[in-house]
Structures are given as structure tokens and as C-alpha cells.
Amino acid sequence: MNIQQRLAALRDLMQREHLGAFIFPSTDAHQSEYVADHWKGREWISGFNGSAGTAVVTLNSAALWTDSRYFLAAEEQLKGTEFQLMKLKIEGTPTIHEWIGEQLRESERPEVGIDGMVCSAAEVEELIKELRHHGGITLRTNLDPLKIIWKDRPAIPQNKIEEHPLDFSGESCASKIQRIRRALRQQHADGMLMSALDDIAWTLNLRGTDVHCTPVFVSYLLISTTTVTLYTDEAKLTPLIRGYLTKNDIKIDDYKNVKKGLQDYFEQTILLDPNETSYTLMKAAKRDVVRGCSPVPAMKIMKNETEIKGYRNAMLRDGVAMVKFLKWLEDVIQSCPAVLPTEMEIDKKLTELRASQPLNRGLSFDTIAGYGEHGAIVHYEATPETDIPLQPKGLLLLDSGGQYEDGTTDITRTIALGPLTDEEQHIYTLVLKGHIALARAIFPNGSSGTQLDVLARQFMWREGLNYLHGTGHGVGSYLSVHEGPHQFRMEWKPQPLLAGMTITNEPGIYLTGKFGVRIENTMLIVPADETNFFPLPDGERPRYLQLEPLTLCPIDKRPIVLSMLTDEERQWLNDYHKVVYERLSPLLTDKERMWLKEATTAI
């Protein structure tokens, strides 16, 4: 079926069900950012495959909302379909409920559908309120049209679950559950339903392969004061994992029984996070519901010593792979400038180099390899239709990462392939200055990422330039490459920054139709060096923090306009490159070491 045929089948069903519109979010039953193929309903109905977006279909129109990361990609993918692109945060773009209200203003069917199992309680409740405000439209949540019209829909994955050893996790499953129960008591809850897949994987020290690039497994976890029950498909459990669960007093029930488990829950109160729990499951709870934030994300983002050691080791191996790749790319450009690899070919080469590293378990996200104007597409992913060869000039934006059993990596480098324009050099240097400003920040313990975000944007703001994505996100420990709730972002994010958190530093500038620049390191928040602090009496100074780069890979010096850098910025870059060389050089061949020596010489 093509997109038009899918829309026709949906509308036939909507007619029978007396619905004026249907909403397809990007999430699964666990409110995941990246989802298994079974839940890619928004992609199936619209053709847009970005990780964020919402499609809405009425009986005679269709629209898709997404953010600035995907504007260019969405425009391309929606061509030839009925879908109108709605650009989030752009002036004049209606909200979903405003658009639906206008579309159904004269409708005899002021009822809208959404699958309550794949949309959080908080989102559905807000949508109910807004739709009621816009013309008294009602929302129906008990229909999943994809069960009927998606004839070849992929099944829910049944891949085997694996243990994540204590040598990598640093804390036992029993200890984590004990901490969770203590946190629940502080919220006056006897137990909780855990829906987020990365939270479940972290809690149980288990991993899976159900979601592309994210080592999680489809499940729910129900915790009470005395019991823990894992709801998952029996086919996923090897004898080894069954024994592990039994040893840790974790009961097993079928994935489809989670709703019944909520209804049979025997304690007086249960915590359900409305941002993580689906609307359908929230309504199924029969006990007193404590609506509050799950305590798990705040625990998960605080890395213990074992996890931090794992990050450092994973970054070493990832840095080796990156250096091997960058040397290979430079050699290819110098030896065969007339026949250079394509974007997809360099993606394949880097993936192979990562795969050859010990403990590698694949990519942490699909590689973004954008040459020239493709670099201006923030989340560009080359396809056979868009793939282009590199040229011995201009800039290549390369955003990539690996999953290792002891850590997750995320790195972006913008690489000069030959002669550059003054504009390319100027923009590159602005981005580098922003990256260095944030990397050099010293800030009070508990500061918000929003308070620091301006450091990365200040130089480009002075020239009327900006980017609409966040400046940084948390990174999981062999888990999701995007981990929150802490972020560097213009929008208010109250989560305090604390020592032991990982977070990326990735400002960028994107000039549509020309090129893009982004420079990204994964950072660790650590206690600040107090050498230069003003002297104060003991006890009067609050704790201060700073950022330590975990990523080990040279930053391309060739595009830098040196006159735009201050002495402090040059010193930071030289110091960083000194560390990169010292840590990576023992792991390289003689030729690779010589290349790295040149790439990290002081400026």
C-alpha cells in the first residue's frame, strides 16, 4: 500500500467509527523516543521517518508536526502526499488542537481518536482539555486502527534478554530496587509501575535488542513493598535470565497481562508517572494513584564510579575508531581526489571500524554524514536516493556514536575536505568558540542547564545566528544515547546539574542550501578545580562544578580563523588535544600515531 491507499483505508475505518480525525504520535506504549517497528504507526501512515513528529488525519486533509531538526527532511519525505508540514515553534504554525478545531468546525463528527496505549496520560489529558476548548470536540482513546488496516504490521519483538554484568553496572539489581522503594516511601507510594524501557533495563541490570540502536527490551515492571513483577514475552527469557530473575526474587508474567496486574495490585497506593504511563494504563489502576515523577531517571543519570570508568574505556576505543577513520578519509582524499567515497560509504567505513573495537554492540544512533548542503539538515541520514560523493573541498558534518557494553558514545566532528570559503571558516570558528565557552564553564552545584546554554550561543547571537535544537543532552551507560531530564537548552529545564552526570556539548549553525557545522563532545560533570578561586573562609563557598571532556578525538584545526580565538580559547584547544594524543597514541599504529601527532599539534 502506498501512502494514499493507507489514508483511504484509515478514512474508511474512521467513517465506520464516526471519527472526524485520528492522531498518530511517534511514541510506543512506553513513551520511548526510539521505538520498535511495531509502533512506527506515524511513519507508516505519513512516510516521515524522523524520531519526533505527530501526524493527524481528517476525512479530507492531513498534517504532520515536527521540530527544526527535521524540517528539511520532512519536506522531502512528505512530497507527493496529502500531508502538510507544520513547523513547531515557528510563528504562525497552529497547534494540533487548533488545527483540528478549525478542520472540524463545521463537522457533524466532532470526535477525534488516538490510541490511549501509545500516548501518555499527561498528553491525553491536556489534549482532552484543549479539544474541548476548541469547539467541544471529544477524544476517543480505545481504538488502534493500525490493528485493522496495517496488514503486514511487524510483531512486537521477541529478542532474547541479556544480563548487564555488575562489572559494568557497578550496582546490583537488589540495591537499585531497595533505593527505588525508599524513594517511593518519600512520595507516599507503596509501589509503582515502571513503563520506560531504559529505566527497566537500568533497574534490573538487563539489556536487549528490541529497539534499533538502543539496548532495551519490551516490558513493564511493577514494584510493590514486597514483590517485583516483570511483564514481558516468555520467548525473550533464556534459562540463564530466568535463573537471574528467580535469584533476585523477580516474578515473571506475560507482557499482555500488565493491565490486569494493575487491576489486581494489592497495595493501597501506587505511583504512576503521567509523563511515562500511557493513558489507558493510568485509567486501569484501581488503587489510589500517586501522580508524580518516577524516581528512576534521577537515579539513572547519576553515574557511579564503575560506570564512569566504563565511559572512559569506551571513549578510548571509540576514539581509536575515529582516528583510524579520519586518517583513512584524509588518505583517500589525497590519493584519489577525483573518485571519493559517498556519504553512505563513509558511514559504512566508520561503522566497520567501530564494530572491530572490543565490547562494541553496534551504533548508538544512525550516523549523520552530511556533505555540503546536506550538513545543514540537522538529522540528515543518507539514502540511496540522496547519497552523494564527497568532493575535495568544503565541509563534512559527521555525527555518530557507538554502543559498548561499558558505555555509550556520541560525537560530532565537522571536517574540512579541502579548500574552504571565508564563510565556512567564519561559521566554523563561531561554533568552536561556543563549544569552548561551554566546555570551560565553572558553575555552582545545582545550576540548571538552561542557565548555561547561552554560553554556547553568545558568539553566534551577536551575528544574528542561532540553532533551534538543544545544546546538550544526557547520555546513558550502555543505554539510550539521549537521557534526561537534564539538558543544555534555551527552554527552561529545571533539573539541576550535579557531579556524576554525563551531558553533551554540541552547538551548531546550519545555513540551508550551503553547509552545516556542529562540534560535539560528551562531557562528565565533575567538581571544579579551585586553584584560581578567590579566597573565602571555610564553609562560606558553595560547591562549584565544571565539565570534563570524555570524548577523545581531534577537533579539525584547518577551518579555524585563528584571529577570532582568544588566548584562553587557544589554550583550551591545545590542552584538549594534548590529552587526546596522550591517551590515544599508545593504542595506535606508528602511521596512525604520526597522523594524530599532526592533528593535535598546538596552535
Please name the defining characteristics of this protein.
single chain; alpha+beta; Creatine Amidinohydrolase, Chain A, domain 1; 3 domains; 4-stranded mixed beta sheet; 28 strands; 19% strand; globular
Total count of domains: 3
Strand order of the largest sheet: 4-3-2-1-5-6
Unreliable stretches covering 5 or more consecutive residues: none
What percentage of amino acids are in beta strands? 15-25%
CATH class of the largest domain: Alpha Beta
Number of helices: 19
Rounded Rg = 25 Å
CATH fold node name of the largest domain: Creatine Amidinohydrolase
For this structure, what is the CATH homologous superfamily of the largest domain?
Answer: Creatinase/methionine aminopeptidase superfamily
CATH architecture title of the largest domain: Alpha-Beta Complex
Q: What is the percent of helical residues? A: 25-40%
End-to-end span in angstroms?
A: 58 Å
The residue-averaged pLDDT reads 96
Largest sheet: 6 strands, mixed
Which structural class do you get from the secondary structure elements?
alpha+beta
